[in-house]
Amino acid sequence: MRRAPTCKSSTSILYAWAKDAPELILPKGVGFRVGGDSGINYLVMQPDHLDHSGVTLYHTETPQPKSAATMLLVTGGLLPPKTTESFETACVIEEDVELHPFAFRTHAHRHGVEVAGWVVTENQKGEDEWFLVGKRDPQLPQMFAPVKNTSLVVHQGDMLAARCILKNNEDRVIKMGPTGEDEMCNFYMIS
Fold first, then answer.
1. Is 189 labelled a binding residue?
2. Where are the beta strands (DSSP E) in the chain?
3. Higher-pLDDT residue of 24, 30
4. If you average pLDDT over residues 93-108, what whole number do you get?
5. 11-23, pLDDT tens digit by residue?
6. What span, in angstroms and rounded, lies between the C-alpha atoms of 99 and 84?
7. Contact, 17 vs 142, CB < 8 A?
8. Burial state string for 149-174 with b = 16 or more CB within 10 A and e = fewer than 16
9. Where are the domains of the chain?
10. Which fold has domain 69-190?
11. DSSP 168
């Protein structure tokens, strides 16, 4: 089957789940902005499986005090046969924002052992300080779990970093990609 993007223009992931994960309830006064000048004009549900799951969306036309956003860190690469490898990615926050992470999610296919994400800040001595956002075995239900360090704040110039540990017991090279025969290394953070 030929694959195509979900939308003609860029996409924004608001929410994702897998492996019998429980629901996500946003904190009081927090919502995802859609419609209007938000840049998100449509909500598209893209199921990868045939089961009886469902999604309930609650909406309001009343602006919420805080706006949520989901950031996604993804790696590429090849996983050689009969090896355990780390795949890493990072990005610097260039926008003048203040983010308060409250949930994270990990995702990998069957070769995933652990996925973790950090906020990296520079202290007054010019040294990097790493603060764990969260880590989880991606073979467990792939839910948005609460961030334990609720005082964590991300500012302009900080870096978000993620690492996946993947184990390949097969005799073939496995590439990162969208199918079940491929592998993925994804770390999601909602703030």
1. no
2. 30-32, 66-68, 70-74, 78-79, 83-92, 98-99, 103-107, 112-122, 128-136, 145-146, 154-155, 159-168, 174-175, 186-190
3. 30
4. 94
5. 677 767 766 777 7
6. 33
7. yes
8. eeebebeeebbbbbbbbbebeeeeeb
9. 69-190
10. Jelly Rolls (2.60.120)
11. E
Q: Is the pLDDT of residue 109 over 60?
A: yes
* Ramachandran assignment for 65, one of left (phi > 0), alpha (psi -120 to 50 degrees), beta (any other): alpha
Q: Residue 50 — φ and ψ, nearest 5°?
A: -115, 90
Q: How far apart are CA 169 and CA 79, in angstroms?
A: 10
Residue 155 marked in a binding site? no
Least confident residue range of 14-18, 162-166, 176-180: 14-18
Mean pLDDT throughout 155-179? Answer: 96
C-alpha distances in angstroms, 63 versus 14, 29, 38, 180? 17, 9, 12, 39
